[in-house]
Amino acid sequence: xLKEFKAFIAKGNVMDxxxxxxxxxxxxxxxxxLVADLINPIIALFTxxxxxxxxxxxxxxxxxxxxxxxxEAGAAVFAIGNFLMAVINFLIIAFVVFMLxxxxxxxxxxxxxxxxxxxxxxPAGPSELDxxxxxxxxxxx
Length: 141
Prior knowledge:
Blueprint: H1 2-10, H2 12-47, E1 57-58, H3 67-72, E2 77-78, H4 80-118, H5 128-140
Antiparallel strand pairs: 1-2
């Protein structure tokens, strides 16, 4: 069983997956910082600094200053604002990732086109008609 486990771990796809997860975690930190530190302030500038995280309903009917105060008091909280902010952040992050992937694909396509243009053209082989004529001539002999 140990040999099977070693073979499983040594397979390329498991190692590729592990590398992908590590790179994904680092990329998540970059995208999260981009959204939190660069994009959200710009959005706050246009929306007047609206923060939906303070929008909540305490299900016990009490009045609390913040979501944290309600949670500390032990009240069940329907935190609509936190959910809304999470959805907005998700949409922003998804758009940023889309734009990054689109840019990377454009760069890769450009590099591929340059390589194809630089590669010498393969000599054209005989056409189908040429091959058929050769067969006909060979059969006549």
